[in-house]
Design goal:
alpha/beta, 270 residues, Rossmann fold
């Protein structure tokens, strides 16, 4: 049982993890340029795209991470978008020796809004969960619209997201339910705060799902992390501002020591 991985390019290994409801084709618009500098590993998460129908009867976070770990190169830079960003944080925390750097895109260690923590209102995700039971297609369409909401090119962004989603097999309902529950329940703020690998957080100024205001709160708990704000983007800056996105990724990764694992540590609270 293995995940589908699209591999192309040469250079330092860079793993791309997509978000909820989508698949690896979502990165089609940037993969050609990135592959000129990096060896890309674009993974379809369990139950999504070409990794659908794996026969996982009772999926959980551990089983997902186990499958993802098997698909990773020995050492790599890890980039995760939205839900993929949460999974990337968890992988970097559990297996720091495999991760050279961590890049989150329109992601958060805690998606749900709390007191003094910007995020999605709990009732929004609850509504998605209820709608998912009744009409999977309509739920995904609604999520696509929210991802582009506010973007200067919202209509085009939704069209591109829909086309790339439909270019591969539809996600499994069980995987959709589990992914949504992870967005509702996971809280990785403590794990993220004690990572010592280089970290870059990419945010869209107009994002309705991961408000840009989270940067101010986030930076207090992860003082060593770098941030970049895409001013014209909502939840998918790699689509809205693809050229700038590739440039930011390239600059960050090329600034890191190649395969330098000497400083990999995870601090623990005693």
């Amino acid at each position: 049982m293995t995940l589908y991985v699209e591999r192309l390019g040469s250079g330092p290994d860079l793993v791309l993890l997509h978000g909820w409801g989508m698949n690896g084709a979502v990165f089609d618009g940037i993969k050609t340029e990135l592959s000129k500098q990096f060896r890309l590993h674009i993974i379809d998460l369990p139950g999504f795209g070409y990794s659908a129908d794996l026969g996982i009867e009772d999926p959980d976070l551990s089983s997902w991470l186990d499958l993802m770990l098997k698909a990773l190169p020995e050492r790599a830079h890890l980039l995760g978008w939205s839900l993929g960003g949460m999974l990337a944080i968890r992988l970097a925390f559990l297996y720091p020796e495999r991760v050279l750097s961590l890049i989150t895109v329109a992601s958060s260690p805690r998606f749900v809004a709390e007191a003094e923590w910007p995020g999605v209102k709990p009732e929004v995700l609850t509504s998605f969960s209820a709608q998912l039971q009744a009409d999977t297609h309509k739920t995904i369409e609604r999520f696509l619209a929210i991802q582009a909401l506010g973007s200067v090119s919202a209509r085009d962004d939704v069209r591109i997201l829909r086309e790339r989603l439909q270019s591969r097999p539809a996600p499994e309902p069980l995987a959709l339910r589990m992914g949504l529950s992870l967005l509702q329940e996971l809280d990785l703020r403590a794990e993220l705060s004690i990572l010592t690998r280089p970290v870059l957080h990419l945010l869209g100024r107009l994002d309705a799902l991961v408000p840009a205001a989270v940067q101010e709160v986030w930076s207090q708990s992860t003082p060593g992390a770098k941030f970049h704000l895409f001013r014209a983007s909502a939840h998918a800056p790699f689509i809205t501002e693809s050229n700038e996105f590739v440039g930011v990724i390239s600059e960050f990764i090329t600034a890191q020591p190649r395969n330098d694992l000497s400083s990999i540590t995870v601090l623990t609270n005693n």
